[in-house]
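Subject: mismatched residue count in predicted assembly?

I count 1352 residues in my input, but I want to confirm that the predicted structure covers every chain. Input:
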Amino acid sequence: MIVAMQENATEEQIDAVIEVMEECGVDVHRTTGAMQTILAAVGPTAGLDITKFEVLPGVMHVHRISSPYKLAGRAFRPQGTVIEFPNGASIGGAQVAIIAGPCAIENREQIFAIAKCVNAAGGSFLRGGAFKPRTSPYSFQGLGIDGLKLMREAADAHGLATVSEVMEIAQIEPMLPYVDCFQVGARNMQNFNLLRELGQVRKPVLLKRGIAATIEELLMSSEYILSGGNYQVILCERGIRTYETSTRNTMDIAAIPVLKKLSHLPVVGDPSHGTGRRDMVAPMAKAAVAAGCDALLIEIHPNADKSVSDAAQTLYLEQFEKLVGELQVIAQAVGRTL
Amino acid sequence: MIVAMQENATEEQIDAVIEVMEECGVDVHRTTGAMQTILAAVGPTAGLDITKFEVLPGVMHVHRISSPYKLAGRAFRPQGTVIEFPNGASIGGAQVAIIAGPCAIENREQIFAIAKCVNAAGGSFLRGGAFKPRTSPYSFQGLGIDGLKLMREAADAHGLATVSEVMEIAQIEPMLPYVDCFQVGARNMQNFNLLRELGQVRKPVLLKRGIAATIEELLMSSEYILSGGNYQVILCERGIRTYETSTRNTMDIAAIPVLKKLSHLPVVGDPSHGTGRRDMVAPMAKAAVAAGCDALLIEIHPNADKSVSDAAQTLYLEQFEKLVGELQVIAQAVGRTL
Amino acid sequence: MIVAMQENATEEQIDAVIEVMEECGVDVHRTTGAMQTILAAVGPTAGLDITKFEVLPGVMHVHRISSPYKLAGRAFRPQGTVIEFPNGASIGGAQVAIIAGPCAIENREQIFAIAKCVNAAGGSFLRGGAFKPRTSPYSFQGLGIDGLKLMREAADAHGLATVSEVMEIAQIEPMLPYVDCFQVGARNMQNFNLLRELGQVRKPVLLKRGIAATIEELLMSSEYILSGGNYQVILCERGIRTYETSTRNTMDIAAIPVLKKLSHLPVVGDPSHGTGRRDMVAPMAKAAVAAGCDALLIEIHPNADKSVSDAAQTLYLEQFEKLVGELQVIAQAVGRTL
Amino acid sequence: MIVAMQENATEEQIDAVIEVMEECGVDVHRTTGAMQTILAAVGPTAGLDITKFEVLPGVMHVHRISSPYKLAGRAFRPQGTVIEFPNGASIGGAQVAIIAGPCAIENREQIFAIAKCVNAAGGSFLRGGAFKPRTSPYSFQGLGIDGLKLMREAADAHGLATVSEVMEIAQIEPMLPYVDCFQVGARNMQNFNLLRELGQVRKPVLLKRGIAATIEELLMSSEYILSGGNYQVILCERGIRTYETSTRNTMDIAAIPVLKKLSHLPVVGDPSHGTGRRDMVAPMAKAAVAAGCDALLIEIHPNADKSVSDAAQTLYLEQFEKLVGELQVIAQAVGRTL
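Triage response: the counts match. Full output below for your records.
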């Protein structure tokens, strides 16, 4: 941490800041310039609350100079993390993984048709929602564990691994038999109690970026899981909220290479939520692969227009199959397989 | 719901859209203009997913024309809602309420000193955090129920009502004896399971706007609580995330009069989180009262710089007392008391 | 400027960064910590492009620690700037000034009626647009210099000073006889050629914050004018663009006290553009005064609904008169007059 | 335009709205539902100011249902626009064009080295800045017309077309002999006077999206140029401002397919400004091509770290050559050449 004092800061103010720094257990290096005094904290700065220093009298700016995350940082595992799944698939290696499925599991016929399609297209992961709290209290809320059982059966029948969203701690235990990967939704990215519990689990966690979360905050949230000993975390860019309304969210494609640079964790792109529009899923899926993502998360449904939720962003199975074919060429163009 | 077709939409496309609308159970009124055809849905449109129509072939725009919320709307209770508390205080009436306290309850001495100060300054509500999940897994996490017991004692000793944040469903029951008002934090504004449970409770709920939530989404979230039969909801503006970094959040003061216009629910301003800076709390508290808020939520601490959390935005007790005095004059200037 | 190196930065990388810093003409102080090396630039850092250092190999973060602006900084004139006008009015002193008028000057009758009303209500400034480039090429574009002549006559008849927007350098000269204050619109906040020319003028400039400008960028733009020797700059908060759509812009009320703290320049609030909604002008005008603004800019029109532009945010004259009366009480509550 | 009245709107309010609509010259179709009345404007609605209706008593929402732009819309030229240049190159056809050059033209040696490199890599367009107003008044401001002469010479020597930014109307005439394409910068996207003048020119205009402009606003600005009779407009996505700070701007890759869908105009991606970071230019250039852009705008410099401006986002010539090679494979993967 660096504290830059105002040009007219008094010696009393400078001493007071040094005292607070020292109380926090760090050593202080002082640089007295012609214009300004700078105080550098040296030592265990990870737990320091920098905003606290910003309001001390005479302080101009405070900057954190070390990463607030450690385990998620690229330096912790420079070669990158590859996560293996029971069905033999992996995320983070040379192959770009395809994770696909319906927003909500609706019935046996639907999920089996989808599983068959995912496998036929070359995907290895089936994703479906079982708990669907919705913005409106008047909408469909999901099949729960019964839905997960159906998804497990369909996945096993087609050699797929399963991914489903966990909404609260109490769901972790009952979900365990049915999911190969827990998804944490954007709204729960900073549900730290849930993250801490998932740190105790020994299954992969796909952590979605919050709709207004910075890349640094996403990495801090992954640190919660990692610090519990669960190193199988996958990060997901799924669009952020901006002033632009022509797409539902603004998919921050640059977050993919930025995350790959800052962290060793695999990165997934979600063009379905990232755009909220079926007609934009294909170009954005291609863009995500071109920018270096390790996997794609795509919503599909045999009768997309009648999907009980997220219909607007859901691909028909034929659209999905065509897209996967096109993505294979893009993947090769960036030195990957798919 | 209004569906505006593209200028070159075909009759087949128009018929297909009408069919999907009718399947959703609404009647369709068609206006065929020289340039464009417009389809208006008439009937039970509350559950319609408008985004689903946006991607149908030939559709240009879809607009919702009725409010997605009903119980939260001003029309439901034009005279406004006043919420009464056991200590005789109320929120939503002529008097602007003061809710104050520490970010985290730390110990008996701290919370009693604060309770005394709040009462002396004329405030009626003591707020303190007991469960404190933090952005960093390496920070202080709160005293839990023991903290709530201390707060209850301190509040009772000084005639105050208590407010504390509930983080998950499992905390509701144990918190009940100690809190007069549940606070739902910004990160949980769309934790619909939690909101639904709070709809079953018969105590007031102070619902904070999410950091990237629209005003409409805040009202939709309040609808979750209201639709469970709990009509005692208080809305809170606490700053939204924008590109500006000179304050931690951008406090959307206009949200106060907008919410007062759209809804009958009382509105609280939180200048502490709204700015994240101690030196900005006073001007923004004044602005919130001038703009018509029904209450203020202010973080205070006897030794603000050493507060275990949110130190930067916490007022010293003397600063708080001075501010309340100044606010009384502003309240009078807008026809309120304080 | 502080350059924080990555933990694993090599000596070669550190030396290379030091070399580039020295080529920029600054001295370098090196602090070698257990984890990280920190390089502090000492000397003439105002012209340094910090982004250039961010991409050098081995660099983790770069922070500017001195203000990029000097003349606009509060330290340059701690007592604050008061700007005097020929009609005896001033902006920046104890009195909160009222600047009001139509979005566009339309005809003699309109502007005289407005001038009379402004004076009667106690305002001292008449503002009207003469050049009105519009988002759509199919809309009304303003009366030009003829409009300014009308405004000048109306202002003189009622003892008012005039404010009007200058859109390009070529307009400065012809506008000079008619305006007491040049307004620079939000879209021109970073039209540096125009700002530089206005630095040569010896009349006050009211500089509006760009719709996506940071507070620091606004101050940097004011520095362009100040550095030309024109110290009569007034800053204006008029709303920024965020994801929220219930108001046209999000008025950043906190920008008012932040600017007052960082700079000695007077600050104006514009609740008309800040909200874009007539029904929100009054509460936001009150909030701006409560938060410490030095003046308000309000759009008014005798027949607001038929104003040729910005009708939605324009007050009727009666609404304006009523508002000014209410504002006087708020001004007193914060120790000002109006 | 559709006006949705509030549920409790009175007949007087409805009649008043109809009257204002009719005064604007449109016919009104009224739909009286059980809950709500809806008024649809039929006729010449292009010039209507919808915000004006939003504040009329009894109005709930107003929606525009026809595009505010006509000439820029895809329907105007469904097959798409291809723009031809004197050197035989084109933008908008099957080949993805490469436009590259320095942020600022610095000297003969620099611009000739760059022109040679662009040509060798297979690019057809040389872009360089001659007028460089900067955020800080203390920085380098460009070589002006002398710089353009150098660029013209260098371009002619290597068979390239030239692109340079025009900052104000007075520069158009003197620039004409030297540029094959005028660039309008993000800050001037709504400088309507400049756009109108460029509508009179018969050379292509590359129009950059403003840092806070919506896609609709970008199209409206292009309409200004098109409506003057200049149909050679190229749209450019170059990053928008959001809360995320790990890249300088957030490059809205989805804007590329959205613009291609809404408009017939060619679309350029600018990964240099879009990210502000040299290490992110390559992945984002690939993403832009994968998403369907018609050209790329890339900043390059033989000694990038010592570029007088935008050093952080500028590629070295070797990096550029390598990138173009990689882009060729991506272009093929999406059915284009490069």
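The interface with chain B takes residues 212, 214-216, 240, 242-247, 250-258, 261-262, 274-275, 279-280, 283-284, 286-292, 326, 329-330, 332-334 of chain C (CB under 8 Å). Marking this ticket as 'not a bug'.
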